[in-house]
Structure formats: C-alpha cells, structure tokens
Amino acid sequence: MGKRSSQRRHAAMLDSISDDDSSVTSSSTSRSDKNSVLVNDEVEVEKDSFLDQALDALFEKRGSTREKALSTIIDAFNNGLQHEFVEKKFATLLHQCLASIKKGSAKEICLASHAIGVLALTVGCGDNAREILEDSVPTISQALKSSSDSSKISSLLECLAIITFVGGNAGEDTEKSMQIMWQVVHPKLGSNVVGIKPTPAIIAAMVSAWAFLLTTADTYRLELKIWQESISYLSSLLDKEDRLVRIAAGEALALIFEIGNFEKFSGSVDGSVQDGSKRRDSIVHIQGLRGKVLNQVRTLSVEAGGKGSAKKDLTSQRNLFKDVLEFLEDGYSPESSMKIGGESLQTSSWSQLIQLNFIKHFLGGGFVKHMQENDFLHDVFGFTPKKKYLLGGEHQMSCGEKRMFKSPNSFLNKARTQYLNKQRMMSQGKHFGHYAVTVDDE
C-alpha cells in the first residue's frame, strides 16, 4: 500500500510539470531535473528505511526473526553497496552481527559472519575496516574453538579471511589470522579446548581461507620451519579421500611454490657452522618435499576415479592438477579471463586466481555488482569497469597506495613476476622452475 502510494506521488510530481510554453523550456527542464532528484531521494529513503527495519529486527529475541533480518541485509548488500546506510549505521550493524555470532544458532552465525564480511568489502580499507577486524577477531576466534559444525566453522573462516584481507596489513594481522585458521585443524589443546577431528569440509575451508591470506602475507617474515610444516601438511592432504580437500591443498601448494622466497635461505649464513648446516638440511628437505609433491600432482592430474564421488569434482581435479603440474615442471602459471560489464578481468598468477575465486565464491550472486561498483575490488584486481571510462577523466582510487601490494596488476607484483620469470628461465635446465632453491656444493 505504502509503495503504491509513493509511486502515485512520484507520478503526480512528474505530471505536474508543464511543457506547453516553449519559452520556459529551460525552466521546465530544470524543474524536471529537480523532481527527478526528489524521486531518487525518496527511493533511497525507502531503501534505507527497509534496511533500518531489518537492523532493528536484529535486536529481537526470536532467532528466526534475526535470521530473516540478516538474510535481508545480505541481499541488500549484494544488490548494491549501501554506502549511505553503512555510513550511518556501520557500528550498530557490526556489533549486532557479533552478538548473533555469540548467541545465535548455526544458521544465524553463518548469516552474521557473511554479513560482516560483506560489510568489510563495502567499507573498503580504512578506519572502519580496521575496527571490523579488531572487534571481530576475538569473537570469531572464540566461536571457532567452541563448535564442530562444518557450515558454521566454514563461514567463520571465510569471514576472518575477508576482514583480514580488507582491514589488516601484510605482517602481524595476516599472520595472526592465518595462525587462528591453522589451529582449527591443529589445535593447541588446553583446559578450554576440546580436540575434535576436523571434517573434510572444515579442512578444505581452512586451507582455502589460509591460502587466500597467504597471497597477501609478507613472505619474507615467514621462517623456513613454517614453509616446511605447511608443505608437509598440504602434501599429506593430497592423499586424502575427499576430492575437495585435495583440490584446496593443490592450489595452496602451487601458491607456496610461486611466492615462497626460498632463495633467501640459500645465501651466505651469518652464524655458526651448525646453524648453516641446519639451514642447508632444511633447504634439502624442502627440495625433497617438492619432488614428492610433483609425483603426487602427476598422479592426480590423470586420476581415473575411485577417490571421491562427483564427476564434476573429478574433472575439476584433473584440470587443476594439470595446471599445477605444468607450473611445477615448466614454471607457467594458469591464465584466466572473464567478462564483467563488457570489460575483461584477467589473472596470470596463482595469487591472482586464488584471490579472484575466493572473493567470487564469497560474494556469490553479488560478485558482478561489486566488481562493477566496489572501488576496493577495482583496486585489488586492477580492474576498471566500462562505465568509468565513459565518465571521462581519471578515477582516483581510495587507499590505492596503502593496498597496492594486493593488486595483481600493481607494479610491485609485475616486478615480482618479472623476477620470478627470470629465475625460471635460469633454472629451467635443472627442472626446478622459477621457485628453485639452491644449495652450494662443498
């Protein structure tokens, strides 16, 4: 009823504009423009009012009411970026979602986690994104320790990945979140932690979220021991029965060999002979692990079936591991391209592909809308929608310099790619690819 009444008011305003007198054409055009603005303003008011009602419903005691409200909010953020609503109600929405994570059902926790993630992508990097990260991590970390529900844990992991990606930095924040994820499948048992064997769905979700954050980590900060443990664990996952686990592990391993700065460990050692010997042994160990992974990947790229079930997953596995095999043997990363609003969004490295697939999966039906309108994602992927070309002039990206290392097309990444390609060409004869580690002969 209210909506029809509003439509009648809009029609009445437009009908009241007279264009009979040609001498006042300019004036009529001006009045028409003003009324058009009024119509758009009323639509925005109605939309904000609708979201306000959904936000108010998050205070209700009935869980089903809060679930419906969260679904409404997520749908609204998928259909538009809701900047005005976020500007006014950002803190309230965040803390009500955190309250839902603390006290809600598994379904409500999944919805609230997703809403926080979309909220972070909407605000982009800055003070608000930082607040989301700082306020959410303690709640998410506690929730991950207190449940074994696969859907709930997967949603919490995705949320943690997104808010860290947007609001964190490549150092301590990223490492902290990656460690929280790692502990989901490798818990540090204590008085308040129960050791529960993670399901394949949880393992796959953890590996995917962990790898997503690894794309932005400061790899020079990571110790050789961490690389060893990661490669060894992920290699063990390639032998698991669940095909989605193997696929997630394969992508993560390809990423590690793409960005791992193993060459820094093979240089001169400032320290004791014993320390140098240990480092040398560790590098040889990584080379051995790489050889094992190569054999596993070769087998999985031609698997005839038997493990897993869905034929679609089998095809995905073969395609993925063929790409991983080509990368490990020859150093060539897979390239992808997709059309969004007439413009191509392209990737040419494992880092870019993992970022794109993760965000695309997270946003679901809202991915295209966000890629068309979300400045933060434009910055991340170095993507400019067609409509921005039509507006003329240069578009000034917000926080571009701060997040430049996350753009797959940034000069930093291009320089790194050029360096890696040079290394690949130099070491191709040794069949180690461009991520080769070397040990001086003695």
What would you say this structure looks like, in words?
The protein has 442 residues and is mainly α. It folds into 3 domains: 41-214, Leucine-rich Repeat Variant (Alpha Horseshoe); 218-332 and 410-442, no CATH class; 336-408, no CATH class. It is 68% helix and 2% strand. The chain has helices spanning 2-15, 25-57, 63-79, 83-103, 106-123, 127-145, 150-167, 172-185, 200-214, 224-237, 243-259, 273-300, 311-330, 350-363, 367-373, 375-381, 386-391, 411-427, and strands at residues 336-340, 343-347. Strands 1-2 form a two-stranded antiparallel sheet. A hairpin with a 2-residue loop joins strand 1 (336-340) and strand 2 (343-347). The termini are far apart. The relative contact order is 0.07. The model is unreliable at 1-45, 267-271, 389-398, 404-412 and 427-442 (pLDDT under 50).
Nutshell version of this structure?
Helices cover 68% and strands 2% of the residues.
Poorly predicted regions:
1-45, 267-271, 389-398, 404-412, 427-442
What's the total number of strands?
2
Question: What is the subunit organization of this protein?
Answer: single chain
In spatial order, strands of the major sheet run: 1-2
Decide which structural class fits the backbone.
mainly alpha
- How many helices does DSSP assign? 18
Which CATH class of the largest domain?
A: Mainly Alpha
- SSE succession: HHHHHHHHHHHHHEEHHHHH
